[in-house]
C-alpha cells in the first residue's frame, strides 16, 4: 500500500475502535442517568443495583475509551498534517470546547464513582447528569468538525492555499451540523439501550433466582422503551441527514443510491451492488419515484446523478452497500424493539409472565447490530467523502502525511486494539462472574447509601 | 510598526499548559510506578498511590489532550511540522499510554490478576514521561532535516544522541522526584506516617539526582543547539532562584511540624513547584522565538487572528465554568478525610 492508503486504513481502524467505546460512553451513561433518576424517584432498590452495575461496566470501558480517544486526537495531527494545518486555522473551536466537555465528564464521573457514598442521592443524579452531558457534548462537538469536512464553511482560500476571512462560528455551525449532530446523539442513545437490552436478554436466558430475573426483566423493559423511541428518532434524523446530502453533497447521495443520471421521479434502489463500469445497480430492487420524494418531499424533485461529476470525484462504489446496511439495521431494530414491547404487553394482558425464548434470542443480536450500524454510518460518511478530505477543497492525498514507517506502526496499533478488545471482554465477564447480583442484595441493604466505586 | 501581541499570548498559554502537564503527568505516571513497587507490602504506600490515582488519572489525561489541541489551534503549522517529524516516537508514547490506562483500570476490577496488571501499568507509566520529554531536544536543532520542503527526523541520530538520553534521564528522575514528593504530602494529609516515611525517603534521594541530571543535560546539547545555551545564560538569575527554591523545599523535608512530626511536605511541594516554574519559563523564554529551530518561529506558525480570538474566548469561558468542578474534585479527593483515610478498605 502507498502511504496515503495506509494512512486511510490506519486512521479508519483507530476511529472504528474508538467509536465503540465512545458511543457506549454516551449510551450507557444516559441509561445510568435514567435508572438513577427512577431510583431516586421510586426508591426501588432494583434500579439502584442496575445503576451501580452499569456504572461499573462504564468505568471499565472508559479505561479504553479515553486512551483510544487520545490516540485519534493525536493521530489526526500525525496522519493528516496537511488537513490539520487548515483545521487549526478554521475549525479549531469545537476541538477546544470538546476539551472542556471531557474535563466536565472526567470530573463528574470520578465524583460519581468514587464520591458516591459521600453524596446525597439528588447530587448523585446531578453528577450522572453531568457525565451524560459531557459525553454527549463531546460527540456533538466532534461531529461539528466532521460535518465541516463534509460541508466546509466559514473561510476563504486562495489558490496557493492561504486562508483568509475566517469566521470560526460559521465554520462550527456549518450547513450539515444540526441534522448530523442530532442523528449521532440519538443513534448513540439507541445503541446504549440496545446493548443493555442484549445483556438483559442474555441473563434472562440463563437460569437465576426470582429476584435476579425480576431485575433483568425491569432492565429489559426500560431499555426497550428507550431504544424504541431512540430508534424512531434515529430513522427520522437519518432521513433529514439524507435530505441534507441532497442539498449539500449530491455526489454522496448519488453514490449511496447508485444513481447515474440526473432525473426527476428518481427511483430508490434497495440492496444489490453498484457497478461503476457498467453504470448500473446489479441485483437491487428499485422502488419507483421514492428517492425523489425522500430527497425533496416531492415526486418531481430533481436528484443529481453521478454523471454530472468528473469520474475521479465519484465516491467509492461500496458507499451504496454501507448506506443500505445502516438503514436496514435501523428499520430492523426499530421493528424488533417495538415487537418485543408488544409481545410483553400482550402476554401481560393475558396474565402470562416472563419472556418467550425466541424473542430473547433475537434480542441478543440487537446490541451488536446497533454498534455495527454506528460503524457503517461513520464509514459511509467518511469514505463517501472521498476523494475529498475537505469537500471540494482539499483531497485526501494533499492531507496525508509523507512520513515513513507507517506500515509497521499500523500493524502495532492493530495488534494492541485486538488485544485490548479481547481483554475488555475478559475483564467484564470476569468481574461480573466474581460479583454476581446475588452479592448486591446483601451489600445493598441501606438504600441509596452505597458507594459505586470498587477500586480498592 | 507595533509588534502584534497575540502570538506571544498564545505561546505563553501553550507553555503554561505544558508546565502544568509536566507536573501533573509526572505525578500521575510516577504514582502508577510507586503503586507497582509497593503493591504487596505491609505499609499503606501502594494503597495511598492508588487512592490518589483512581479519581484523577482521567483529568490528568485530559490536560494532555488540551495541550495537543491548543498547539493545533494556536500554531497549526507547528502541529504540521511536529506531526511529520515525531510520528514514530509519539506513536510509541500513545501505545504506552493506552496500555497503561487500560491495565490500570483493569487492575481495579480483576482481583485475581491484579499484580500482573499493576506491574505492566507501572512499568509502562515509568517510561511515558521519559519519552515525552525526548521530543524537546528535537525542537532545539540538529535533529530535523528538510527534504523537498518536508521536515523529517534524523532517526538514527535521535536514537543515538547522548543529549536525548540525558533528557530521558531527566524525565525519569523528575517523574520519580515529583511523584514521591507529592505522595509524601498526600500521605501526610491522610495521616499515614509509615507511607509518609517511605515517600519522603524517595524524594530525598531523587531531588539532588534530578538537579544533577538537569545540569548535565544542558551541557551536553548537540552543537546545533549551541544557540539555546547562549540564550539560556541570559536567564542565569532565574536558574539561581530556581535552585534556591529547590534548596528551601528540600530542607523543609526535615523541618518539624507543630505536632513534632519531621518534615513539612506541603512546604516542600510548593517550593518545588516554584523551582520547576522558574526553570521551565526560563527555558521557554530562551527558546523563543523558535518553535522548531531554525525552521519555524512562533510568528510563522501562528493561526488566523479570528480563530485565535474565538479560541481565547472559549478557553476563558470554559475554565471559568469548570473551576467549581475542579474545586469540588479537589475537596472530595485531596481534602476529605473520609476519602483519604480509606472508607472502603
Ligand atoms: C445505530 C446507528 C445508526 C442507524 C440505525 C442509522 N444511522 Fe445513519 N448514521 C449513523 C448511525 C446510524 C452515524 C454513525 O451516527 C452517522 C455517521 C456520520 C454521522 O453524522 O452519523 C450516520 C450517518 C448517516 C448519513 C450520512 C450523513 C453524512 O454523511 O453527512 C445519512 C444520510 C444517514 N445516516 C441516514 C440514515 C437513515 C435514513 C437511517 C434509517 C433508519 C439511518 N441513518 C440509521
Ligand atoms: C476524529 C475524531 C475523534 C477525536 C479526535 C476524538 C478524541 C477523543 C479524545 C481525545 C478522547 C479522550 C478524552 C479524555 O482524555 O478524557 C475521546 C473520548 C471520547 N470520544 Fe472521541 N474522538 C473522536 C471521535 C469521536 C466520535 C465520532 C464520537 C461520538 C460520536 C466521540 C465521542 C467520544 C466520547 C463520548 C468520549 C468520552 C469517552 C467516555 O468518557 O465515555 N469521539 N475522544
Ligand atoms: C468515529 C467514527 C469514525 C469512523 C469509523 C471513521 C472512519 C473513517 C474511515 C474508514 C476513513 C478512511 C476513508 C477512506 O479513505 O475511504 C476516515 C477518514 C478520515 N476521517 Fe473519519 N471516521 C469517523 C469519525 C471521524 C470524525 C469525527 C472526524 C473529524 C474530526 C473524522 C475525520 C477523518 C479524517 C480527517 C479522515 C482522513 C481523510 C479522509 O480520508 O478524508 N472522522 N474515517
TrEMBL record, chain A:
It is a multi-pass membrane protein. GO terms for molecular function: electron transfer activity; heme binding; metal ion binding; oxidoreductase activity, acting on diphenols and related substances as donors, oxygen as acceptor. GO terms for biological process: aerobic electron transport chain. The chain crosses the membrane at residues 15-38, 59-80, 86-115, 122-142, 180-205, 217-236, 322-346, 358-380, 405-428. Keywords: Cell membrane, Electron transport, Heme, Iron, Membrane, Metal-binding, Transmembrane, Transmembrane helix, Transport. GO terms for cellular component: cytochrome complex; plasma membrane. It is found in: Cell membrane. It comes from the Bacteria. InterPro entries: Cyt-d_ubiquinol_oxidase_su_1 (IPR002585). Signal peptide: none annotated. Belongs to the cytochrome ubiquinol oxidase subunit 1 family. This is Cytochrome ubiquinol oxidase subunit I.
From TrEMBL, chain B:
GO terms for cellular component: plasma membrane. The chain crosses the membrane at residues 12-35, 56-75, 87-109, 116-136, 164-187, 199-218, 238-255, 267-288, 308-328. Keywords: Cell membrane, Membrane, Transmembrane, Transmembrane helix. InterPro entries: Cyt-d_oxidase_su2. It is a multi-pass membrane protein. It comes from the Bacteria. It is found in: Cell membrane. Coiled coil: none annotated. Belongs to the cytochrome ubiquinol oxidase subunit 2 family. This is Membrane protein. The gene is cydB.
Amino acid at each position: 500500500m502507498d502511504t496515503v492508503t495506509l494512512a486511510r486504513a490506519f486512521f479508519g481502524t483507530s476511529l472504528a475502535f474508538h467509536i465503540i467505546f465512545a458511543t457506549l460512553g454516551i449510551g450507557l451513561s444516559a441509561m445510568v442517568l435514567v435508572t438513577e433518576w427512577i431510583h431516586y424517584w421510586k426508591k426501588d432498590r432494583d434500579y439502584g443495583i442496575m445503576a451501580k452495575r452499569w456504572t461499573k461496566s462504564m468505568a471499565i470501558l472508559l479505561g479504553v475509551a479515553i486512551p483510544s480517544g487520545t490516540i485519534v486526537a493525536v493521530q489526526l495531527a500525525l496522519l493528516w498534517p496537511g488537513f490539520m494545518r487548515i483545521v487549526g486555522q478554521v475549525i479549531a473551536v469545537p476541538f477546544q470546547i470538546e476539551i472542556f466537555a471531557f474535563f466536565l465528564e472526567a470530573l463528574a464521573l470520578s465524583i460519581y464513582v468514587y464520591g458516591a457514598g459521600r453524596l446525597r442521592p439528588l447530587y448523585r443524579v446531578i453528577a450522572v447528569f453531568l457525565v451524560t452531558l459531557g459525553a454527549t457534548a463531546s460527540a456533538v462537538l466532534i461531529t461539528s468538525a466532521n460535518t465541516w469536512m463534509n460541508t466546509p464553511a466559514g473561510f476563504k482560500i486562495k489558490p496557493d492555499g492561504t486562508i483568509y476571512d475566517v469566521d470560526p462560528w460559521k465554520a462550527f455551525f456549518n450547513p450539515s451540523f444540526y441534522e448530523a449532530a442530532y442523528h449521532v446523539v440519538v443513534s448513540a442513545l439507541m445503541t446504549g439501550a440496545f446493548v443493555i437490552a442484549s445483556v438483559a436478554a442474555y441473563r434472562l436466558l440463563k437460569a437465576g433466582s426470582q429476584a435476579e430475573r425480576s431485575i433483568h426483566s425491569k432492565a429489559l423493559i426500560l431499555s426497550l422503551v428507550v431504544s424504541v423511541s431512540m430508534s424512531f428518532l434515529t430513522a427520522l434524523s437519518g432521513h433529514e441527514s439524507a435530505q441534507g446530502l441532497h442539498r449539500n453533497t449530491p455526489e454522496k447521495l448519488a453514490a449511496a443510491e447508485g444513481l447515474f443520471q440526473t432525473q426527476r421521479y428518481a427511483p430508490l434502489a434497495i440492496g444489490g451492488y453498484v457497478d461503476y463500469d457498467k453504470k448500473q445497480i446489479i441485483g437491487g430492487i428499485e422502488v419507483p419515484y421514492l428517492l425523489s420524494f425522500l430527497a425533496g418531499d416531492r415526486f418531481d424533485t430533481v436528484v443529481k446523478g453521478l454523471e454530472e461529476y468528473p469520474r475521479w470525484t465519484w465516491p467509492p462504489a461500496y458507499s451504496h452497500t454501507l448506506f443500505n446496511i445502516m438503514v436496514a439495521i435501523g428499520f430492523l431494530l426499530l421493528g424488533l424493539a417495538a415487537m418485543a414491547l408488544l409481545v410483553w404487553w400482550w402476554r401481560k394482558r393475558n396474565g402470562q409472565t416472563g419472556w418467550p425464548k425466541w424473542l430473547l434470542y433475537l434480542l441478543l443480536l440487537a446490541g451488536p447490530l446497533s454498534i455495527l450500524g454506528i460503524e457503517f454510518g461513520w464509514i459511509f460518511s467518511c469514505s463517501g467523502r472521498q476523494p475529498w478530505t475537505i469537500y471540494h477543497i482539499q483531497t485526501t492525498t494533499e492531507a496525508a502525511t509523507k512520513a515513513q514507517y507507517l506500515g509497521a506502526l499500523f500493524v502495532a496499533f492493530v495488534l494492541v486494539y485486538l488485544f485490548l478488545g479481547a481483554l475488555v471482554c475478559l475483564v467484564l465477564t470476569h468481574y461480573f462472574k466474581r460479583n454476581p447480583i446475588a452479592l448486591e442484595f446483601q451489600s445493598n441493604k441501606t438504600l441509596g447509601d452505597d458507594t459505586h466505586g470498587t477500586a480498592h | 510598526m507595533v509588534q502584534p501581541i497575540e502570538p506571544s499570548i498564545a505561546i505563553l498559554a501553550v507553555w503554561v499548559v505544558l508546565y502544568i502537564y509536566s507536573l501533573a503527568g509526572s505525578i500521575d505516571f510516577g504514582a502508577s510506578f510507586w503503586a507497582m513497587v509497593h503493591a504487596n507490602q505491609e505499609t499503606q504506600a501502594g494503597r495511598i498511590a492508588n487512592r490518589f490515582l483512581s479519581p484523577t488519572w482521567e483529568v490528568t489525561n485530559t490536560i494532555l489532550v488540551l495541550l495537543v489541541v491548543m498547539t493545533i489551534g494556536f500554531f497549526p503549522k507547528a502541529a504540521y511540522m511536529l506531526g511529520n517529524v515525531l510520528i514514530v516516537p509519539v506513536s510509541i508514547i500513545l501505545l504506552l499510554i493506552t496500555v497503561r490506562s487500560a491495565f490500570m483500570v483493569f487492575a481495579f476490577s480483576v482481583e485475581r490478576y491484579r499484580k500482573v496488571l499493576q506491574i505492566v501499568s507501572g512499568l509502562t507509566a515509568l517510561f511515558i514521561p521519559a519519552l515525552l520529554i525526548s521530543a524537546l531536544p528535537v525542537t532545539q536543532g540538529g535533529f530535523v532535516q528538510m527534504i523537498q520542503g518536508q521536515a523529517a527526523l534524523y532517526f538514527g541520530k535521535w536514537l543515538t544522541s547522548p543529549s536525548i538520553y540525558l533528557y530521558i534521564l531527566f524525565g525519569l528522575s523528575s517523574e520519580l522526584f515529583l511523584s514521591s514528593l507529592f505522595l509524601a504530602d498526600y500521605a501526610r494529609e491522610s495521616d499515614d506516617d509509615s507511607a509518609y516515611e517511605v515517600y519522603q525517603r524517595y524524594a530525598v534521594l531523587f531531588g539532588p539526582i534530578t538537579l544533577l541530571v538537569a545540569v548535565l543535560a544542558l551541557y551536553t546539547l548537540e552543537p546545533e543547539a549551541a544557540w539555546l545555551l547562549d540564550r539560556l545564560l541570559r536567564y542565569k538569575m532565574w536558574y539561581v532562584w530556581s535552585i534556591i527554591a529547590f534548596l528551601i523545599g528540600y530542607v523543609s523535608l526535615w523541618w518539624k511540624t507543630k505536632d513534632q512530626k519531621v518534615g513539612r511536605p506541603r512546604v516542600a511541594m510548593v517550593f518545588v513547584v516554584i523551582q520547576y516554574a522558574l526553570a521551565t519559563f526560563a527555558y521557554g523564554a530562551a527558546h523563543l522565538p523558535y518553535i522548531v529551530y531554525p525552521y519555524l518561529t512562533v510568528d510563522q506558525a501562528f493561526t488566523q487572528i479570528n480563530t485565535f480570538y474565538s479560541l481565547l474566548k472559549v478557553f476563558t469561558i470554559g475554565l471559568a465554568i469548570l473551576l467549581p468542578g475542579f474545586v469540588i474534585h479537589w475537596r472530595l479527593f485531596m481534602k476529605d478525610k473520609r476519602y483519604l483515610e480509606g472508607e472502603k478498605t
